[in-house]
Amino acid sequence: MRRTLSSLLLLLLAIGCDRGQHPGSVAKSAPQFVLTDGDQTIDLSKLRGHTVLLNFWATNCAPCIEELPSLLALHQKMPDLDIVAISIDDAPEAYHRFLLRHHIDLKTFRDPDDRINALYGTSQIPESYLIDRNGMLRRKFVNAQNWTSPEIMGYIASL
In what order do the strands lie in the sheet containing 52-57? Predict the structure, then answer.
């Protein structure tokens, strides 16, 4: 019984840890979308010709908040990179208070219906996708990242 329980636990851990850092959609066209959140509209197709970092997050997500300082620092260090942050927050008031309190100067949009992250197959946050100038998915990042690490910044610069 103990051996069966141990095997089952090991299998569940392996499944839970594989959130698809190398999804089948890499090297394919990024799913196009237009999102209007009541305040503003984003049309991903209008960002063709630019490298885009698409980040899914929420104000109540500890790993999202953990990576936020480095995401903001990346925005300062690479101003030509279009960072599009899509929040799944339900409450617009809490979302706007969070943006003000943390001085968020990224392109951020609220998608409380989870329409865009479902389009990308994102089931947990934070998750981010790097999209090249031609609209191709180049890399998926799972969990909080240090966005100013030499490896990540070098990869972005290579696009």
Answer: 107-110, 82-87, 52-57, 127-131, 137-142
